[in-house]
């Protein structure tokens, strides 16, 4: 979670009843506060905020959420170039690495892939041929860095192994723009190195600071453009 988002949540938590009763659908009031900030919950979900006892707190919460909404609206949106969908974040490379890490599962290949090899493949659902350098090859999964499309296949300054169609299992990288999501959250994101700047979707499996691992990758984005 970014510092600004953490501050917003903390201010909301101070005004919530603090009973951690679960009546709102969340185990704790701080979880409820995070959902309020993300727009996934509303104040009416808390039964205590509908009572006279917490009338003043509710008024202040409404004002604070309005201010947060205005601040969110002032922030530049992250929009996919190809599809026009709005993303939650941009995923950038880990420090000193050339591109986000991708975890691939080849559907079929006779090539014997080893660490350091350059491979040519097409991600399932993507029309663009990719070239990548292999960081790790184990148990049918390849962890790679994108090294770019090489459309001029007549070039002789590099060698590669063709692995054909691949399922992109996951991405690893750093959140450089947008918000840092929670583990288990489904997010829309743009990999910084994506040639088409297309919005991807996936589930956050690990989040350590601003470093994420996102799996269940899909190029289909079910939510309509905003």
Automatic annotation (TrEMBL):
Keywords in alphabetical order, please.
4Fe-4S, Iron, Iron-sulfur, Metal-binding
User: Keyword 4Fe-4S, does the record have it?
Assistant: yes
Which Gene Ontology terms cover its molecular function? 4 iron, 4 sulfur cluster binding; metal ion binding
- Per the record, the domain of life is Archaea
What Pfam families does this protein's entry cite?
A: FeS
Instruction: Give residue ranges for domain 4Fe-4S.
Output: 1-63
Gene3D superfamilies with a match to the protein in the record: Electron transport complex subunit B, putative Fe-S cluster
InterPro entries from the UniProt entry: 4Fe-4S_dom, ACDS_complex_subunit
Record bears the keyword Metal-binding? yes
Q: What is this protein called?
A: 4Fe-4S domain-containing protein
| Lineage of origin | Archaea, Methanobacteriati, Methanobacteriota, Methanomada group, Methanopyri
